[in-house]
Amino acid sequence: MDVQPARTMRNLPDTLSSLMGFNKHLTPSWIESVSHIIDGLPRMKVVVEKTENIGDDNTESENKVEKIQDELVSLNAQLKQITLHRREALNNYLDLKGNIRVFCRIRPFHHEETYSSRNLFTLDESSIFLQVAETKRKQYKFDKVFNPLSTQGDVFSEVEPVIKSALDGYNVCIFAYGQTGSGKTYTMEGKPTNLGVIPRGIQTLFNRASECSNRFLFTFSMLEIYMGNIRDLLAPRSKSNGLKNVSSLSIKSGPDGGIEIEDLVAVTVNSFEEVKRLYEVGTRLRSTASTMANSTSSRSHCLIRISLTCLNATERRKATSKLWMIDLGGSERLVKTKATGKRLKEGKAINLSLSALGDVIDALQTKKPHVPYRNSKLTQVLRDSLGCESKTVMLVHVSPNEGDLCETICTLGFATRVRSIRLESEEPPEVKARKETLLIDLGLKVNDLEHECEEIRRKIKNLEESMEQLTGSQPTIDSNFDMSHLFMEELKTDASSNVRSSKNRREVSSRLPRFMKPTASSQHRIGLNNCIHVTNRKKPPVPPRRRPSSVYAESVTIPGNAAPWQSECSMSMTSDMNWTPSIRDGTECSQDASEYEIKQVIFSEHDKSLHDQVTCYTDYQLAESRDVKNKIEEKGIVDIENWLHQQIIEKINTCRSKLELDIPIVTEDVIYVSSIPSPITMACTKAGSQVKDKGIYLTLQPSTDYVEDMKQAKALNQFAAQEFCTPPIKEFYINNEVKGHKNENLVYHGRPRKSLQEELEDCMLEKPDKDSRSHRLQDEKHKIGKLTKFFQALRQHGLVLF
Ligand SMILES: Nc1ncnc2c1ncn2[C@@H]1O[C@H](COP(=O)(O)OP(=O)(O)OP(=O)(O)O)[C@@H](O)[C@H]1O
C-alpha cells in the first residue's frame, strides 16, 4: 500500500488513491464525485498547511502549557479543599437548624372566600395564631411561617440548602402536607410563570452539579402511592393493561441497607428539560379526581425521586443519595367531605398513611427506640431517607378560610407533633441566642466558601480556555458534545443489556428488527439526539423490554384530534402543564393516557437544542464511564431515550388496529416489499440463477419521482433528513448471511441502520485550529486514519466492490 503518513496531503483524490492503493478501482470521475460529497459535508475541510519552521513556536507554547497545567493542578486541589469546608459548614448549619424542619405556608384567600372570615394571623416569622373562638387564640410555632404574600422564591430559599446537601451525599425528603386545596401542589409544582419547589430544586441540582468538580449521574423516578399500592408513573402502560391490572411494586432492602423499589423505572437525566418532559408524562398519569373540596384533588401521594450518584468524589458521604420531593394526598375530614364509596376508601387510605408518617417523624424527633416504619407503604418506601442521617423538610399548608377551621386545627396539630421536641419555647433564652449567632456565622461562612469556590472555578475555566488556544487539542463545544454522546451511547447500550437481564423485563424482552429502532437521523429530528455526526463505533442501543412492534414512532398513525382520549379518559390534573378539566367523577389513574398524549409530550420540543443541555465530558470523565456502567448495571437504570422508546412502542401496540404495516419478509431467494410508503418502488429483483449462490447482486431501483427529487436535492444531505428513504445505492452485495440475519437485511428496505451520510460524517476531517502548528504532523496521521475509515464506510455501503 502506498501510504506515507507524514506526507502533506495535496488534494483529496490523490490522497484517497494513494492511501488505499486501489487506483485501478477508482476512476477519476468517481473520485471527484466523492470529493464533492465530502466538500458538501458540514465541518469537513481538509486544511493543507505548510509545515515549516514550527520548532521554535513549539518550545515556547510547550512551556506555557506546562505552566498552565501546574496552575490547574494547584487550583483543583484548592477547590477540593474548600468544597470540603463548605460541605462541613453547610452540614453544621443544617444540623443546628434541625434535620427535620417544619415550615407552615398559609395560602391566599380564594375569590369566593371572604377576608373577614380569616382565622389565621401571623405575628412573626415563626409563629401563627389561630382564632379558635371569639376570645380565644391558639399559638403554633414553626421553623418558619410563610404568609399569604410569601412568594415561591421565599419558600425555595429555605428549602434550597437542604436540596444542596443531597449533592453532598445526604438523603433528603421534602414533603408538602395539608388539607385538600390548601396549596400543596402549588408549592411543589407551581405555575409555569411561578415555578415551585420541584422545578427549582431540579434546576438547582443541575446547576450545582455542573459547577462542581464532581461528576454526577442523575436518575429520575416518579411514583404514586394509591390506596396502599405503589404505582410507577413512568412505566409504559397501555389501555390493554389498564387501571385494574396495574400491579403494585414491592419494596425490598438493598445490600447496603438501603431501600429499593423493585422494577421502579429510573431514567437517567442530563438536563432540566428532560426531567420536565418526564414529569409531564408522570403527572398526567397520576390518580386525581373531583372532590367536594377540590375539583382536581390528588387521590394519592405523588413521589418524585432523584437519585444522585457521584462518580468521582471520595470525600462524599455516600456514592448515591436520594432526593425525594413528595406531594402528599390531601388530608381531609371524611365527615366534611361527605365522601362515600371509593372516595371514602381513598380518603381513609390517605389519612391512615399520613398518620403513620406523623408517627414515624414523631418517633424520630423524640428519639424513640422503635420507629414504626412498617405501618404504611409511604414510610416503608422512605425508610432510608427519613432518619438521623437524612434531612427532612415538612411544608405544612393551611387555608386561611373560616370554613376550613377544623381542618386547619388538625393540620396544625400534626405539625406540632412532628416538630414536638424542638419547640423554641423549651430552650433557655441564652441557648437560643447563642444558637442564633452561630447560625448567622455558619450561614455567612457557607456563603463565603461558595463564593471562593466560584472564583476558583472561574480561574480554572479561564486557564482551560488558554490551554485550548495554545494546544488546540482541548475539545471544542462540538467535540465535547460528541464525546458526551459517546458516553451516553455507552450508558444506553449498558442500560439496554442491563434491562434485558432484569428478571421482569426478560419476560417481554425481544429484539426489535433494526429498522424499527430509532436511527441517528430520527433521533436528531425528534430532538432526542441531535448529534448524528458523532463517531459511533458501537451498535445502536437495543430498546429494552418491549415486544416487537411493527413500526417506529414516527410512522405511527396518530388520531387526528385529541377527542378520543379526552372523552374517554376524563383526565383531571392538578398540573398546570397540561390541564384538562375532569368530566367524570372517577379517580383517574395512570393507564388512561393515550398514545396521542405521549406523542405530544415526547415530540413537543423538536427544536430544542441539546447542545445547551448535554453535559460536556472531558477525556478524564470519559474514562470514568466504566464506573458509570457498573453503577447502571447495579441499579437497573434506564436511559431516557430507551424509556421514551418504550413509551412509544407501548403506545403503538395500543393502536395497532389502526396500522396497516407489513413487515418486509426476507427469504433466501427474494425480498418482498412492504406497503410502507417508500421512494423505492421495487426493492430488489431476483438475480436469476445466482440466487442460491454465495454472492447475490440485488438491484434497487428508485422510482421516477424519486429520481427527479434526487436531482434537485443535494445528494446525500437529502437522506439525512428523511426517515424512511433509501440511500442512493444502486447495488447491494448480499452474502449468504441473509439467512442468519434476516432483520439485519431488512434495514436495506427502509432507512438503513446507519446511512452513508452518517458513516461519512464519522470519518469527517475536522478543521484544525490555525494556531496549532505543533500538532500538524499528528493531524496528518489523524486525517489518514479518518480517510481509511471513510473508505471502509464506502465499502460497507457497497459503493466499492472488492
Ligand atoms: N400560595 C398560593 N398562591 C396562589 N394560589 C395558590 C396558593 N396556594 C394555593 N393556591 C391555589 O389554590 C388552589 C388549590 O391549590 P392546590 O391544588 O395546590 O391544592 P392541593 O393542596 O394540592 O390540593 P389537593 O390535595 O386536593 O391536590 C389552586 O388553584 C392554586 O393555584
TrEMBL record:
PROSITE patterns: KINESIN_MOTOR_2
Assigned protein family: Belongs to the TRAFAC class myosin-kinesin ATPase superfamily. Kinesin family. KIN-14 subfamily.
Region listing for Disordered, in residue ranges: 534-553
Protein name, entry field: Kinesin motor domain-containing protein
Sequence ranges assigned to domain Kinesin motor in this UniProt record: 99-421
The keyword Coiled coil belongs to this UniProt entry's keyword annotation: yes
Alphabetized UniProt keyword annotations: ATP-binding, Coiled coil, Microtubule, Motor protein, Nucleotide-binding
Source organism per UniProt: Oryza brachyantha (malo sina)
GO cellular component terms attached to this protein's record: microtubule
